[in-house]
Amino acid sequence: MKVTAQQVNDLRQRTGAGMMDCKKALEEAQGDMEQAVDILRKKGQKVAANRSDRNTTEGVALAAVSADSKIGFAMALGCETDFVAKNEGFIQMTKTILDIAMKNQAESAEAVKNLPYDATISIGDKIVEQIGVIGEKIDLVSYEKITGELVTAYNHPGYKLVSLVAVNKNSAQAAEAAKQVSMQVAAMSPIALDKSAVTQETIDRELAVAKELAINEGKPAEMAEKIAQGRLAKFFKESTLLEQEFIDDAKKTVAQYMNGMEAGLTCTAFRRVSLTK
Predict the structure, then answer these.
(1) CA separation for the pair 260, 223 (Å, rounded)
(2) Per-residue pLDDT band at 9 (split at 50, 70, 90)
(3) Domains and CATH numbers, the chain
(4) Please, what is the Cα angle at 29 between 44 and 17, to 5 degrees?
(5) I need a surface site. Which of 91, 135, 196, 235 has the fewest CB within 10 A?
C-alpha cells in the first residue's frame, strides 16, 4: 500500500527514527502504525544484541534534587560516541529520564528502566528503541539516589561529571558548605566519607602494596610495617572526603571547613558520577 508523508512524519515524531527507516517500517507493516513501531523496536533489539560488547564511554551525566532539597538524584546515560552525546535530542532524553526517576523516587537503575517513559513505552524499551534509531549502544550506566537534611547537586559543565552531597543541617550556611563540598567531590574523587567507611578489603590492599614498596626499597620487615601504616594514613587523608584538604584552603580539612561554617555541620553522604576517561 502507499504510505503517506503524514504517516511517515507521525512515526518519526513518535520514535525519533529516520525518515527512510519510518517509511520502510510502515511499508512492511502495511500502514499499521503500531506494527511499524514494533518493527522499529525490534530493529533496536537487534542492533543492541550486535553491539552488546561495545563500551559506552561517552554520554550525558546529570544531577538534581527534589523540591524540598532532601533527596538527590544523579545518573549517566552512556553512548559510544561524542557525536551522539552532544546531540540535543540525546541530552533531552537524559533529562526526561531523570525527571521521571525523580518523580517516582526510583531506587535503582533497574527500577528506572521499568518506569513508563510515556503512555506507550517503558524507559528500558525507549533506550532499546533509540539504539535502533541511533545505531550505537546506549545504556543507563549509573544511577544514584541519596537523602539528607539538605542535599546539593553539582553539574560540571559539559555533561560529563556530576556530584551529590548530603549534610545534616538545613540553613544558609549549610547550603553554601554543601555547594562547596559538592565541587570538592567532583574535583577530588574521594572513595569514602571517612576512614571508618573504607572497606577492609581496600585497607588490606593498600597496606600490602605499601609494605611491598618499602621492602623493595630495602627496608627491613619491621620498618616496612611501620612505613605501610604511615602510607595508609596518607591514603586516608587523600582519599576520604572529610579528611581531605579543603580545595579552597589547604590549611583545613573538609571536616574543619564544614564545622567552621556551622558548628556540628558535617557531610552524611555523597555520590560522584563521571563519564570522563
Answers:
(1) 38
(2) confident
(3) 5-50 (1.10.8.10), 58-193+263-274 (3.30.479.20)
(4) 40
(5) 196
